[in-house]
Amino acid sequence: MIKRLSKAAAASVLSVIVATGAMADEGLNHSPMVWSGLYVGVHGGYGWGDIKGEADSDDIEYDGAVVGGHIGYNFQQGNYLLGVEADISWSDASGDLGDVFPDDPNGSAEFKTDFLASIRGRAGYVFGAMAVYGTAGVAFANLDYEVAFNDNGSHVTGDLDVGTAVGYVVGGGVEARFSPQLIARIEGLYYDFSDQDLKGASYVDGNKVEDIDTKVDFDVFVLRAGVSLALN
């Protein structure tokens, strides 16, 4: 259901940008668009992902909103566009293991991601006031795992994290210029973080029981829209 809704949302927003971008192109066609130069912007959207541990178990789904900022530089050669961009997004994406503590209905086991960031190259093609592009690069994120439940009168907790995970990101998008300075965009980005070290410890009634060191894979697809300000 979520995937169908995300595809419908992407199609709707994309059609609006394409239509308004075409109107912007008509309004600006008296002079050629210059895409080269520095730009900064903000963006927001939503992400859906999966987490897989070392144990042979089902993937854990997680999702949440993302919002952040980006900065980049474009190099235009004719209708071809090359560039580099860095971005960082705050995230409230989370997912839980469900009812895994039958003896404690208040027990919880939750994964969460607080941020996503990337440094990417971009390559695209310009159609007047419109541009389409692909993008790829290195990605960064964090992943925390917290568990708490009661067992035979004892309070058991666990706190693990991967620190800063390093992976890759690929995606693409479309941009429309509504003025020489104002640029709107929609893009989809797929982040992959494989073979990450998930480390921490477990505690019983506040006393450390053991250190934990395991592996985890996680990924996330983010659909987001944004606005940029050209500084050239």
What can you tell me about this protein's structure?
29% of the residues are buried. By secondary structure, the chain is mainly beta. The chain has one helix spanning 2-28, and strands at residues 37-53, 60-77, 80-96, 108-127, 130-141, 144-151, 154-161, 165-177, 182-204, 207-230. Mean pLDDT is 84; it is low at 1-14 and 16-28. Strands 1, 2, 3, 4, 5, 6, 7, 8, 9 and 10 form a ten-stranded antiparallel β-sheet that branches. The longest helix is centred in the first third of the chain and has 27 residues, at 2-28. It is 12% helix and 69% strand.
List the helices and strands and how they pair.
Elements: H1 2-28, E1 37-53, E2 60-77, E3 80-96, E4 108-127, E5 130-141, E6 144-151, E7 154-161, E8 165-177, E9 182-204, E10 207-230
Antiparallel strand pairs: 1-2, 1-10, 2-3, 3-4, 4-5, 4-6, 5-8, 6-7, 7-9, 8-9, 9-10
Mean pLDDT: 84
Oligomer: single chain
Helix run count: 1
Report the helical percentage: 10-25%
Brief digest:
This protein has 232 residues and is mainly beta. The protein has one helix at residues 2-28, and strands at 37-53, 60-77, 80-96, 108-127, 130-141, 144-151, 154-161, 165-177, 182-204, 207-230. The longest helix is centred in the first third of the chain and has 27 residues, at 2-28.
